[in-house]
Amino acid sequence: xxxxxxxxxxxxxxxxxxxxxxxxxxxxxxxxxxxxxxxxxxxxxxxxxxxxxxxxxxxxxxxxxxxxxxxxxxxxxxxxxxxxxxxxxxxxxxxxxxxxxxxxxxxxxxxxxxxxxxxxxxxxxxxxxxxxxxxxxxxxxxxxxxxxxxxxxxxxxxxxxxxxxxxxxxxxxxxxxxxxxxxxxxxxxxxxxxxxxxxxxxxxxxxxxxxxxxxxxxxxxxxxxxxxxxxxxxxxxxxxxxxxxxxxxxxxxxxxxxxxxxxxxxxxxxxxxxxxxxxxxxxxxxxxxxxxxxxxxxxxxxxxxxxxxxxxxxxxxxxxxxxxxxxxxxxxxxxxxxxxxxxxxxxxxxxxxxxxxxxxxxxxxxxxxxxxxxxxxxxxxxxxxxxxxxxxxxxxxxxxxxxxxxxxxxxxxxxx
Length: 416
Fold this sequence. Notes:
The protein is an alpha/beta fold.
């Protein structure tokens, strides 16, 4: 076994000890729980070896976490590599102690899910929703979805340990509010925490949709990549950034807004964007922009999903627009690759379903316009989590937040 325990995301635990006998030791039960979340199941002897804590201290902290319902005992039986003799008894993080609720809110649809305490999605449900209708209208659709998911999994509101939402707009992560969103009418500074506090007594997180997707892809498939860039191509265009194995939000949470960088076209036109500026990447390559251009070309369409279907069925106008969009996005992505030098770029969202047409332009522009060193080991993939990327990312973020060592220590102290 490794001698440096890691947290759920693979990062070293603060205060983690080296080999057995180390004097550093894990400080409190919260950090011990983080070890179990990352490596369950573990025996008492293994915990001692990993942390350098004495047997009496390990026993005391395991008993404390077990009494709180956060650890459960597991009978490992005779396990190869764990010694001979009596079957080993071990402990594991109790993922069934409660549930987490998450909702990935997009411009025209949302997906709610109930998850166990490890962040694993147990059950989810999609629904149509127009984010421009305002927070009360959208969140009023989320409420019954959450209630239904809880009922279908045999849970109640009191079992909910945390809630997380993602939205297609700029987010103040600390305050859990949307800040001056271009398309989210009425959401600016709306008190989302107060809305859900009427029903649930638990923490609430708010995240930008592309950031949640980035975290989901990184944690489930790309932890080998120190730096990952997630591009969401849906009604709009957004990006989420993982740098150094951590989410990069920027100084004020505005990092990754690639859709509102400038894209100068060969046609000399600067189309008006929904943000009020002209010539944005999104105004040329977003799903809403392609819908606009197809309607102008005489196609009877009303949704981005219909745009994707036209592309996939080889409508010549739709295919041409998709290829142009791919090149526009590719130019913007090439500039971002030069700046960030990511190891992996993941592309998701509705338009990613038109992979053949969109990805051709993306690859062409990225590899022709980026520096050779920046693309030498670059991986470019379609999202592997697909429509559940945001839900998975939210659940993993929320689990880490709810069971942060300091939060666990505070909860245990208040309960004694």
